[in-house]
Specification:
Amidase signature (AS) enzymes; single chain; 16 helices; alpha/beta; 11 strands; eleven-stranded mixed beta sheet; globular
Length: about 500
């Protein structure tokens, strides 16, 4: 587990590079899929990135993709034949979907979510379902009922959460693209800790139909990739206007990567001083300062900006998100699907038993917080007030983007920490999302790209854009990526 195999050139190829190999007939999708499944079999005892692997389905889909790549059937897309992973809170027809919770044991959806359907229509090869914090509630991927995911850079450390399985799998070469959900940083934070690219698009650009809801006004699906170009290609496939999601909107641009090669000379980029929080690790701060110098050398105009309401974002999030979770998780009662109980004499007792056994500690903690915030006598003081402050945070961002094209911040205040270090201190765990949460509160696009190393571990750099500024953050991230090359670093696993 200390050296890369001879096949590392394949395992650490980008999705675009793999597609080029398909077009050049250097390798088939079936061959790439078999090799990737072998990689998964070898590494899973160390990483635990997957909850479910579906090798037979994957090979069958790869065979169809190869026919499509040879001209039979529909025109190939950028993801045709590419092996990918989807987080296990995505509904997948005829494949168990657990959200990493005991309460959904045995639940097999009768339908695909919109993103899964879009991936299948594009010809992507879905290898299986990625591990996550239970119901996407966590920042370390330690709350999964299936055990923690391990960071491929150091298997004694966390990969970040909640999309830790997807991030670890992409970083380790177990898939070429992972798809996760981001409620308060659950794509960007693990991407940062695992040294890969992760993006949360503008709220509404990717349908949430088929996503097991956590915080409905905050959740957004996005990709985890090895490069910014792969990220843009993946977003082009999964974004779509969907009448089954009432918040779904049509993208105001034809291609997420339309400006990817435009550079950032003359771009105005703000540095919010409030994101350089107390307790930020010195190595993270040093890498961030070095990244600012790179952006200046590329011709961007960098200046400090103040977003004072950032200090309230964490409190706002931990009222709104648990409140919405309390409402969304009330459907899990053991009656229609998942874990059930036949031993209690009343339905109320049966529901209590199912939830007591089926939900983990972190999920219960957030349900308690949310139910309290929504209860009579406290609704106005907590939930209503949090929504009012949320509006002010949105306005603050809007005002900032009158002056700046984008904002740049660290993605996480720390590098990956040891498994178990923060599980007994929920507040310290929640602080890991302090740089990512405001983006979800305001519904903005943001991307994390590899931005350096500290203590031999990856550091992430986050670009934030205005609403529908997705192409702008992709453009800025790509310019930084091309200059620094941090994305070319891979774990020796």
């Amino acid at each position: 587990m200390t050296t890369q195999s001879a096949s590392s050139d394949l395992y650490f190829s980008t999705a675009r590079q793999l597609r080029s190999k398909f077009d050049a007939r250097e390798i088939s999708s079936v061959e790439a899929t078999r090799l990737t499944l072998e990689r998964i079999s070898t590494l899973e005892p160390y990483l635990n990135s997957f909850i479910t692997v579906t090798p037979e389905r994957a090979i069958a889909d790869a065979e169809i993709a190869d026919q499509r790549l040879r001209g039979a059937g529909q025109e190939p897309t950028s993801l045709t034949g590419v092996p990918v992973l989807v987080k296990d809170n995505f509904s997948t027809k005829d494949v168990e979907t657990t959200a990493a919770s005991k309460i959904l044991k045995g639940y097999v959806p009768p339908y695909d979510g919109t993103v899964v359907r879009n991936l299948k229509d594009a010809g992507a090869v879905i290898l299986g379902k990625g591990n996550l914090d239970e119901f996407a509630m966590g920042s370390s991927n330690e709350s999964s009922a299936f055990g923690p995911v391990h960071n491929p850079w150091d298997t004694e450390r966390v990969p970040g959460g909640s999309s830790g399985g997807a991030a670890a799998a992409v970083a380790a070469g177990e898939c070429f693209i992972g798809f996760g959900s981001d409620t308060g940083g659950s794509i960007r934070q693990p991407a940062s800790l695992c040294g890969v690219v992760g993006m949360k698009p503008t709220y509404g650009l990717v349908s949430r139909f088929g996503l097991l809801a956590f915080g409905s006004s905050l959740d957004q699906i996005g990709p985890i990739t090895r490069t910014v170009a792969d990220c843009a290609d993946a977003l082009n496939v999964i974004s779509s206007l969907d009448h089954r999601d009432s918040t779904s909107v049509a993208a105001p641009f034809a291609d997420f990567g339309q400006d990817i090669d435009s550079g950032i000379a003359g771009m105005s980029i703000g540095v919010p001083k409030e994101y350089l929080v107390g307790g930020m690790e010195p190595g993270v701060r040093s890498a961030f300062e070095a990244s600012l110098k790179v952006l200046e050398d590329l011709g961007a105009n960098i200046s400090e900006v103040s977003l004072p309401l950032t200090d309230h974002a964490l409190a706002v999030y931990y009222i709104i998100a648990p409140s919405e979770a309390s409402a969304n998780l009330s459907r899990y009662d053991g009656v229609k699907y998942g874990l059930g109980s036949l031993e209690e004499s009343t339905s109320a007792q049966a529901t209590e038993a199912v939830r007591g056994e089926g939900f983990g500690d972190e999920v219960k903690r957030r349900i308690f917080l949310g139910t309290y915030a929504l209860s009579a006598g406290y609704y106005d003081a907590y939930y209503k007030k949090a929504q009012q402050v949320r509006t002010l945070i949105r306005r603050e961002f809007t005002d900032a983007f009158l002056k700046y094209d984008a904002l740049v911040t660290p993605t996480s205040p720390s590098v990956a920490f040891k498994i178990g270090d923060k599980t007994e201190d929920p507040f310290q765990m929640y602080m890991n999302d302090v740089c990512t949460i405001p983006v979800n509160i305001a519904g903005l696009p943001a991307i994390s790209v590899p931005g350096g190393m500290s203590e031999g571990l990856p550091v992430g750099l986050q670009f934030i854009g205005p609403q529908f500024g997705d192409t702008t953050v992709i453009r800025a991230a790509a310019a930084f990526e091309h200059t620094t090359g941090w994305h070319n670093n891979h774990p020796l696993i």
